[in-house]
């Protein structure tokens, strides 16, 4: 199976490195000509994944049409751009493995729904989990959820993507795998705020637990399975992203917690903090589904300029309730 990777950011490049394990050929599409040039000439991606020597079997291209020569595609463009990039990609009936974590603004569609609308004949899989790109690219042990309804395709993709340090666990719950990744980015911003505002580790643990409760409420309302949300792509990724400044979402929250305005934190950044785009869409989708998501609403207010003191005070002042989900 020849693998194509759409997106030469940190994660697309790290996944290309995994897929190239053992000398297997990979074609990486990057939007930035300097990424194509540096991967081709130096086996490096200076822009998005500096310091990593890439496998010589990764070939880079600037032409999406070149991906016609591959058997399966890993889709690693940011969630807000997946629709446009896929529309320009020859796909047909080839499997799409979706690796972006977010919900499309405007349409409020999960990335899988976006992909199905653009390429209805392509089978869909989702790869998601606790995976900082720089760790995966360095060969550190990592486990992910690989969700696909078709059992045979799931096994074939898992076999093809697995490497000694990279272990996919199969699931048939595509929606659950998508929702965990999208929601945890929003919650990670909240945890960053707790850190930046100096609110302590008790508050962070409470936010992770109550955030997981609202991820579960939203997921179940959208047809996800509880076991998926409690797995690698849900709770696993939530814990990772809520506890490290390696996370762009967490780091964005740290800035907000210190009182820096969202607009300046987001301006001119080359890397993507998906939660900032997903938060308002998720809040709206939750309202439509009648699902209470107070932490997500709080993150929206923080992104809109409200102070951490005011937002956290309002969260704590909510009426007392039983724990549960
Ligand atoms: N970096 C990581 O550790 C991980 C990232 N992800 C997810 O992977 C997805 C991609 O993130 P990264 O590779 O980290 O990106 P990145 O932050 O390293 O780089 C930004 C990416 O956005 C692309 N981009 C910017 N404007 C675009 C446009 N108009 N059209 C198409 N592409 C555009 C750039 O070409 C580049 O590939 C995100 O959904 C992210 O949540 C998932 C797991 C781990
Ligand atoms: O998804 C990730 C780790 O699993 C990366 O998180 P950030 O996008 O917040 O850096």
UniProtKB/TrEMBL annotation:
Enzyme class: oxidoreductase
Active-site residues annotated for this sequence: 184
Protein name: Glycerol-3-phosphate dehydrogenase [NAD(P)+]
One GO CC annotation: cytosol
GO molecular function: glycerol-3-phosphate dehydrogenase [NAD(P)+] activity; NAD binding
Catalytic activity: sn-glycerol 3-phosphate + NADP(+) = dihydroxyacetone phosphate + NADPH + H(+); sn-glycerol 3-phosphate + NAD(+) = dihydroxyacetone phosphate + NADH + H(+)
Pfam families registered for this protein in UniProt: NAD_Gly3P_dh_C (PF07479), NAD_Gly3P_dh_N (PF01210)
Positions annotated to bind sn-glycerol 3-phosphate: 101, 129, 131, 184, 237, 247-249
Organism of this sequence: Sphingomonas abaci
Positions annotated to bind NADPH: 11, 31, 101, 133, 248, 272, 274
Keyword Protein biosynthesis included in the entry's annotation: no
Family (UniProt): Belongs to the NAD-dependent glycerol-3-phosphate dehydrogenase family.
Glycerol-3-phosphate dehydrogenase NAD-dependent C-terminal domain span: 173-306
EC number: 1.1.1.94
Chief location: cytoplasm
Pathway of action: Membrane lipid metabolism; glycerophospholipid metabolism
């Amino acid at each position: 199976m020849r693998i194509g990777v759409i997106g030469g950011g940190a994660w697309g490049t790290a996944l290309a490195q995994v897929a190239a394990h053992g000398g297997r050929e990979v074609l990486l599409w990057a939007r930035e000509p300097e990424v194509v040039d540096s991967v081709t000439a130096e086996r490096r991606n200076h822009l998005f994944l500096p310091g990593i020597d890439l496998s010589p079997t990764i070939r880079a291209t600037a032409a999406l049409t070149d991906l016609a020569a591959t058997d399966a595609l890993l889709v690693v463009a940011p969630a807000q751009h997946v629709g446009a990039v896929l529309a320009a990609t020859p796909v047909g009936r080839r499997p799409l493995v979706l690796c972006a974590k977010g919900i499309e603004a405007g349409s409020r569609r999960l990335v899988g729904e976006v992909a199905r609308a653009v390429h209805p004949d392509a089978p869909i899989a989702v790869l998601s989990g606790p995976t900082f790109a720089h760790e995966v690219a360095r060969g550190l042990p990592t486990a992910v959820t690989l969700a696909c309804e078709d059992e045979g395709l799931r096994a074939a993709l898992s076999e093809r993507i697995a490497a000694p340090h990279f272990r996919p666990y199969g699931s048939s719950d595509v929606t659950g795998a998508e929702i965990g990744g999208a929601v945890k980015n929003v919650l990670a911003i909240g945890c960053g705020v707790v850190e930046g505002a100096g609110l302590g580790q008790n508050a962070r643990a409470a936010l992770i637990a109550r955030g997981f409760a609202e991820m579960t409420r939203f997921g179940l309302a959208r047809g996800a399975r509880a076991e998926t949300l409690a797995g690698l792509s849900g709770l696993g990724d939530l814990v990772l992203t809520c506890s490290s400044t390696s996370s762009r979402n967490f780091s964005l929250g740290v800035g907000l917690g210190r009182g820096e305005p969202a607009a300046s934190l987001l301006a001119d950044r080359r890397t993507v903090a998906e939660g900032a785009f997903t938060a308002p869409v998720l809040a709206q989708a939750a309202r439509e589904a009648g699902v209470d998501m107070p932490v997500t609403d709080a993150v929206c207010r923080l992104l809109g300029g409200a102070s951490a003191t005011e937002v956290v005070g309002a969260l704590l002042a909510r009426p007392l309730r039983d724990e549960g989900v």
